[in-house]
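EI: anyone free to look at a 419-residue chain?
SC: sure, send it
EI:
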Amino acid sequence: MSHSTRTTVGRTLLVLALGAGAASCGGGDGNPLASAPYDASDQISFNGPTDDGKKADPGKPLEVIAEGSDGRITDVTAVDAAGRRVAGELAADGSRWHSTSPLAANAHYTVRVSTEDDDGAPGRRVLSFDTGRPLTQKRLNVTFGPKSGTYGVGQPLTAELSEPVKVRAQRAIVERGLKVESRPSVEGAWHWVSDKELHYRPKEYWPTEATVQVRSTLDGIKVSDRLWGGTARPLKITTGDRVVAVADAASHSLTVYRNDEEIKSIPVTTGKPGFETRNGVKVVLGKEYFVRMRGTSIGIAEGSAESYDLPVYYATRVTWSGEYVHAAPWSVGSQGSANVSHGCVGMSTANAEWFFDNVREGDLVKVVNSEGDIMEPFGNGFGDWNVPWQKWREGSALVRSTPQGANQEQTARLQPTAT
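SC: here you go
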């Protein structure tokens, strides 16, 4: 079949004539389905280059067209050399297939097209082509967090982008390229915290003893006319036991559960009036054996009645603004009976040392019955678990509703504050 042209969606589709024509469809027994698939080269066309040395524009979608009326497309798979599959849609009548996810730049693609003729006999055509380099050199690089290691079941994943992405359709491209896999598998979603940061969490906490891996397939993918996907180092973390500490400001106690079994109850003190401890679920951010805490860091004037400057030991951090679970030997007389701190959960030195030794980053501290505000979802640590699942999903560009919290910036700084 000679080359012919067809205009579709403003582009010229070049008819492939790379085979010798349709092979015989009949088998030895006369059944057209008994033979091997015939060469369907003269039944399809696509909008890729047909001349040696030419490369396809990665900014344009891939299209495959069934030529004539004697056959239809039944399936198309397009995969690059890195194993990235191109998503696509096939017309109900089998006349056309087009990609719905972008091609990668500077990549080699293999396209396998399955067809059938009017008698139902199967045909096949394998195409290959290369894409060119993007005109722009601006790249969207991704940095995943936390660092590799073992964490508690409350640890969210983070993705920091090197460039802002504001348009919802472009955000969807980014999300599709950020792949999260966990064993055991869980339901989860990305949530846009800002134009340059996403968090990922499951619907519930991670399973215990889970392995979680995150990687990017954005390298070479067009995000916008001036921005193309760049590099990202994959990340793997594992989870340990399910450790949840519940601090009850009304009963002045902290109860620690491991895998839903109570293992210790500790008398504590929480924030007094005017300095109430935040309610809600917080994720352990780190542990510091010694911290010097000053009232000036939370706006208390030096020399005032509330002023303090104290050495603090066995401090387990739960907010960036300075909320800890820590040793408070000066308030032992109030622990278990009154709230006298400036926002932290205080306990005896022995109990603080035990707590310090038995929790890790990613474990959970839940404060209940405090007069304080609810822990912020973002910007002051990981308050991600205080967002209901439906609202969390609405923060994804892949969900058809208005994102929640997509413009909240993470602005709190790391500093020791409350006691």
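EI: Helices lie at 168-176, 349-358, 389-394.
SC: 👍
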